[in-house]
Amino acid sequence: MRHHWGGRRSRWVAFASSMLLALTTTLVAQDVERGESRETAETKKQKEGGFRGWIDKRVRSFTETSDREKGLTPLFGTVTPGSGLAGGAGYKHFNAFGPGLGYEVGGMVSFRRYQEYSAAIGRLNARSSTVELDTADRRVGSLFNDSSKKAPGSALYVEARYRDYPQSIYYGSGLTSLKTNRADYSLSGVSVEGVWQRQFNSSLGISVRGGLLDLHVGTGTNSALVNFEERFAAATIPGGLEQPRFITLGAGLVRDSRLHPGAPDDGTFIGLGVRRFTADAAADLDFTRITFDMRAYAQPITARGVIAVRALLSSDFTDSGRQTPFYLQQSLGGGDTIRGLPTHRFQDQALYVLTSEYRWRVHRYVEVAPFVDVGKAAPALSRLTFDSLKVGPGVAVRLRTDHRTLARLEWATSSEGYRIVVGTGPSF
Asked: Is the dihedral of CA 172, 173, 174, 176 positive or negative?
């Protein structure tokens, strides 16, 4: 295995490492001083009688997270942005090989035939209650398991995943890419990674993940679109002809003071992720990705209304001056960045997204949220300015409980038309 570390790359890795170390030291010191003074037990509500009480009981039994160490669980959501709604199942047995040592398997298939399957083995009991940095090819808008409540503990395991995305979309790179150049391709492959997760207390946690990422580009299955290899000169696009295996190593640090991450109405979320991609056969495709994600929630007007804001910044740094492989590039568009733009609409080396929502509880189980998404993509971090912004205003209707967002229907518009986004869980 070749390991070539140029001067420029080393400086960026050293810079990212120093940022992560400094932030960890500061936050640990603050949380140790504060200790576990934060109230972790929630106030129990008095039971209501009659039909409404029966309804409330049924909703709670359906939505509350199970703490079972063994069993089958239905899965609903999306495989990846653009896949459409998906369903599947997971099975876990956390003490199968002795106390604290078990396995977990699962899979999902969408109505657009996107598929993803995974298997993990190790110390998994605290996996969902500790910060988890997701796989190396996950989109920057959803790097962490950010909707589950955290508690002190550790997880250590090995995970393998297979994914098959048959209708991935590519428009070209940069803000000048044309909508008429829309083409599709398939993306499939495996990843095998070792993962360590450590939650210091209910708000501060760190995750380290590293291993092999082996993805391949093929012909797309959407007969209504031109294939990628027919629309573009693949030889001129990084990763267009050959897709090398990558050795990846990343770390994520999260400080989350939200009381109910599944439906937040107070507190803040601050996440920093750093990940290195080293290609096994093409030195000019190596790169480092740094991502910063900050969210804040407040109730300044009434108990029913919540103002939610998010700032997402991410950039890839290469040694050769070339671009990241096109199928791993960051992009604007889709349900996790600018909802008024099509998924993967504007790809480039760096991007930022600013989002603001006003979440109004019109009913105990219904929330209406007007929002606006603003962002930009650019060839480098230094070129992320505030001109030529992409804007996506819209409104969302969500089904929720006091502690979880169950489903959401979002209508958003942009200079390229309007879109309807259907999903599960909170938007952020």
From this structure: negative
